[in-house]
Amino acid sequence: MAGPGELGIAAFILASLVVGSRLILLARRTRCLPELALGVGLFTLGGVDYLLNMAARSEALLPDAGRALAMIAAVHCGAIGIIAIAVFTTRVFHPGSRIAAALVGAAGLALIACGIAQGLTTGYLVVATHEDPALFIRVFNLIQAAILAWTAVDASRYGRKLGRRVSLGLEDPVVSDRIRLWSRAAMIASGIYVIYAAGEALGGDLLASSIWNPVLAGLGFSSATCLWLAFFPPLAYGRWIRERSARATD
Question: CA end-to-end span of the chain, whole Å?
Fold first, then answer.
């Protein structure tokens, strides 16, 4: 029976798959890189990567060889997804920056190195079975967390700039709110990766913990909610944001 942690992670996976798919379809119409990069990032990192991780960790779904292959596929999806999000962050918040582009390249090489090192040392089955701390994969997770924190900080800074323009009536409050929500979604997701990296490095499945299961549930539901409202907010929510902004500026 699924606990609250599993349900929270499932909500995050569903939101990532749906929002990522819709952004990819939007990119087909706009022909713009930011929509495509973020769509691919959310779909592969928050969606497919997590699904493959869950399959790899289930003894009932796959034999040991299948579990190892699923974990290898998950790592590939995780690397593609997080680099796509880094490309989005660079293109939107640091256009033309050679330093940002170099950092993205360095992060990509570091992810590849961690993936290869894990395969050459204790392998990938131990990652799924928690038989080994799998430190190279934990470093991999921390790189992912750092990139998500980076995009969260950049979005937060930009959101504050828009907030000042909103107070002067020069910006749409819904746009400012969507930037704020994306920043929160990314920061929560970053926190999830840090928790997993730290907890599993010490051994054990965090979802099996009576302490961490509800924590992960709250983080998963919170990130899923922020993600959905950031990119596809209901009309009623948009009206509420505009009304609240109007009251604040009166």
Answer: 51
